[in-house]
Every structure is written in structure tokens, then in C-alpha cells.
From TrEMBL:
Keywords: FAD, Flavoprotein, Oxidoreductase, Signal. This is FAD/NAD(P)-binding domain-containing protein. InterPro entries: FAD-dep_OxRdtase_2_FAD-bd, FAD/NAD-bd_sf, GMC_Oxidoreductase_CD, GMC_OxRdtase, GMC_OxRdtase_N, GMC_OxRtase_C. FAD binds at V224. Residues 263-277 form the Glucose-methanol-choline oxidoreductase N-terminal domain. GO terms for molecular function: flavin adenine dinucleotide binding; oxidoreductase activity, acting on CH-OH group of donors. Pfam families: FAD_binding_2 (PF00890), GMC_oxred_C (PF05199), GMC_oxred_N (PF00732). It comes from Decorospora gaudefroyi. Its cofactor is FAD. Belongs to the GMC oxidoreductase family. It comes from the Eukaryota. SUPFAM superfamilies: FAD-linked reductases, C-terminal domain, FAD/NAD(P)-binding domain.
Amino acid sequence: DLCAGDEWDVIVIGSGPAGIVAADRMSEAGKKTLLLEQGGPSYYSTGGRARPAWLNGTELSRVDVPGLYTSIFSNNEGDLMCASDVVNAYQACTVGGNTAINAGLFFQPPASDWDWYCPEGWKNKDMQCAIEKVRTKQPSTDKPSQDGKRYLQSGFEAAKQWLVDRAGYAEVGLNDCPSSHNKTKVFGHPIWNYEGGQRSGPVKTYLESALQRPNFSFQTGTKVLRVRRDGDVAKGVDVQINGASNTSCISIKEGGMVISSAGALLSPQLLMWSGIGDPAILSKLSANGHLTVTSQEWINNTGVGDNVFDNPNTFIELYSQSISSYAYSYSDPPPQDAQLYLNNRSGTYTFGGQTSAFWDFIPQGDDRIGCQGTIGSSGFRDYTDNGTITLNVYGTSGLRSFGRVNLDDNGIALPSSNFYSDPRDATAIATFIHNIFQALPPTLTPLNVDRNSSVQELTTWISTWSPYTMGNVQHWSSSCRFGACVDTNTRVLGMSNLFVVDASIVPPLTTNPVMGIMIAAERAVERILGLGSSLS
Ligand SMILES: Cc1cc2nc3c(=O)[nH]c(=O)nc-3n(C[C@H](O)[C@H](O)[C@H](O)COP(=O)(O)OP(=O)(O)OC[C@H]3O[C@@H](n4cnc5c(N)ncnc54)[C@H](O)[C@@H]3O)c2cc1C
């Protein structure tokens, strides 16, 4: 029953953005650090070779080319997505986690996200160092094309005329000061964590620096089944390597630690499989034969998996004669666009298709609800004629409808989102849409909803399921919250040396989550290192 092999100071589970940041900083601090990832390669630099033929002969995999973002929804060449026996949601299981397949949108959360929704030690003033570290280490750009031109701007111009000229939004650099601190009525070009016309992100920055260090090791194809523990002390992890049926164990040193960075769905699952969670769920898991620890050894932590959040999404299809739509192709891009990309890292394939983004807050009593709009380059479903673009409207910070990370009979995470279970959420988002519709120019026509709809009609529309409404965007977060599941050092309640550092600990953010998750991971490492030797 003993764990064999190397003894580590820190084992980090999961190479998503949070796990990579945590592992890099832990190794930088001199800790002997092991990063484990269940998936395989993604970017070309990690060994990823899946790609369409037009990339043959280059040092690019499909992951490196930003314009191939939308093709992930129709084509899983390279097995980047998690299999259905891993998680019941659309998530990536590969080096980089979801940052290897996402759109790369990289927006700094406003100061209010920390000040309003985070505990002491995590307020905006406390986050400044962490923010600066991420901004310094992770490049980003609002002008991804290497020829310095902006592409697909007809949709941007139409949106600007609408939102800036008519609705009173300020056109800003969205991560500049002060718009990085306050996302009230701001509009601008999207910002992505791309570099040199290619996808960047933590795999290209933090992971690269970690890999330079002799005290860091990275192992892919290694799935952690459970954290091994003796009471409240984590001792190591049980792993399954490359799908083999036998398991082995990797141990940590006395005084070492385990950090779960498996993401907002899989960190709760992993904790539950380790006998930490709501006793009702653990009983079911045990009855189905998935628990190796007896009920006497369970740790009662009802915050595990509770109050998970995803942004409710609404697609509004908009048409204008002045707009040229653009749909991306995986295997067959227009030849001139492929050439522009291959020869100059320029043109439409240097970005994921978003042409603008904007935010506002809708007041509700003492609180306020963040709302985001992101405009893409083409129509969707029944509305794909030229001239059509899609506006994604998300509800963000301050929303009050949460779900739960449940486990199915196989013990696999099955999240519920419970959109609009608090009716104020739907009212806020409908008000946001109503406000901007008041300023719609006659030249821009919503196709799937009446521009003259009342707030009540919009509320009903967004909260009735259709292919355009009640959508998940897979920005899962908030499933292991401060105070309920972890303490303010991100340590699992009831454990001495087990931490959760990923989207699970982050509250619903005003912005797309990755930049906020990386900032939170930086802050978490500062807090964990601050604990010194008081771990065990
Ligand atoms: C289609 C899509 C588009 C998105 N677009 C954007 C965007 O443009 N901008 C943005 O900010 N956000 C976007 N997101 C969301 C964002 O990518 C995620 O919120 C973020 O990556 C979560 O980070 P994380 O570190 O919590 O974990 P994840 O990125 O989920 O990574 C977790 C990693 O842990 C591994 N893992 C899990 N369990 C185990 C285990 N037991 N053993 C070993 N390894 C394990 C997984 O395989 C995975 O690689 C998008 C998400 C999706 C799905």
C-alpha cells in the first residue's frame, strides 16, 4: 500500500491556466514540483501534430492558429476535448486545459470583482502584485495581425455606430487604465492572449519557464484518481497512466502539499473521489463502488461542488447591408487568407472571429449585475446570410443563480447551471438588452427577436430555451468557494495540506475568466507560500 517513486514538495493536478501558473511559481520558489495532466499534447511545441492539411510543413498544430477556434465545435481531431467518461460537459483535457481550445479572449476583471465578491486578503488592493505578474508575463494584444491591420471591421464599425455614437458607450482600450478597473459602458476591440499571430497563453509563457528548471517535472497522460490521505494530511496521489487499468501512487514529502487545479468541474469530482464532500453524495459514490476510503474517514465539506456558476448566454442575430460576414473553415480557408497567415501571420486567421466587446452594469438594489456583449463575424443556425453577425450577451458578476456539480452513477461530474432560478438575473439581462435596443440604428436589424420588445418580453424570451437562449458558455467557476469549501489560503476545509487553485475558487467574474483565473492563481501561490512551514 506504500507509495513508490520520487517524493515531491508539491504535486499540482491539471495543466489548465491555474495549474500552470501555480506549478511555475512553486518551482520558482525552489519547491520540487510535479505537474500532472491527464490529456495529451496540444500546441506544436508540446508535441501536438493534429492539423488540417493546409498547415503541413509548418511548426503549427491546429491549436496554434487562432482562426481555427470555432472549428473545435465540429471537429475533435487530436482528441483535445474530454471524453464523456471524464466529465459531462464540453471541456478540454489537454496540455493547457481549456486555454488550448478557447477563443483566447483575455480581459482584466474590474476592481469591483475582487472588492465585492472576494474575502479579506483578496481585495483589489491585495491583488495588485498578482495582476502585475500576469500582465508582465503573459503577452496579449488587440491587434493580432502581424501586418498591423485590423480585419473584418465592417461588424466593428456597425457596432461602434450603435453603441458609441448612439448608446453612449466609451470606446476604450479594454485592458487599459481605467477601463481595466471599471467596465461600465465601455466598448472596444477584443483583447486576446495571442503573440506573433499565434495562440499564446500559459503553455507558451509560464509552462516554458517552469520547464527550464531542474526541480520541475511535467507528466502528461496521467490521470489522478484520488488524493491519498491519512486523516487530514494528503500523502500523495493515486494515478492511472495512459489509460492502463492498474494504478500507481506518487507521494509527497513530509510537509509537502497537493494542489488541485483540475478545473471547476473536476476539482470537486476529485475531492469527492478522495472522500471529501457532502456526505449524501459520498454515500452514493460509495454505494456505486467508487470510494476507497471508509465512511469513518470521510471529511464533511458540503461546499465541494456547491454553487457552481456558468454565464447564461443569449445569441442575438443582427443584420446590416453594410456588414460582410465571415465564417471560418478548418480544412479549406480562402486561399488568399491561408497564404496571408502562412507567409505573414496576418489576416483573418490571426484571431478567433470576435470583432468587438462591451460591458455595462445593471443596478439591482444594493448590488449590480455585470453584462457583457461580444460580437462575432458571422450568423448562427437559421440566420447565416451575408450581412449577419452574432451578438453573444452574457450575464456575469453579481448574478444569483447557481447550480451544483453533481456526480452521475459512474461518479462523473454532471453540472447543473440553474440559469435564472433567481428571476432577478433574467430581468437584469433583459434590461441590458432593452437598453441597447433603444439605441439601435435603423440600419441594424435583430433577426431572431423583435427590436421593440419590452423588458418583460425580453425576460420571457431569454429565459425560454431555444438554440439562441439559455446557452452554456462553459466558463464554469465558483464550485469550491472561499469560506464554504476552501479557506482564504485556498486550503480545503478539513485538510491541512490540500489546496484548490483554479476556476473553482473564483467568483462569477465580469469578464471572460482566464485572466482572472491566472491572477487568482498568482495570488493563491503568494498566500500558500506565506503559510511557511505551518502546513502539516
Ligand atoms: C469553448 C470554450 C471557449 C472559451 N473561451 C474563453 C475565452 O475566450 N476567454 C476566457 O477567458 N475563457 C474562455 N473559456 C473558459 C476558460 O478557458 C476556462 O475558464 C479556464 O481555462 C479554466 O481554467 P482552469 O485552470 O480552472 O482549468 P481548465 O482549463 O479546465 O484545466 C484543467 C485541466 O486539468 C486537467 N485535469 C482535470 N482532472 C484531472 C485529473 N484528475 N488528473 C489529471 N489532470 C486532470 C484537465 O485535463 C485540464 O487540462 C472558454 C472555454 C471553452 C470551453
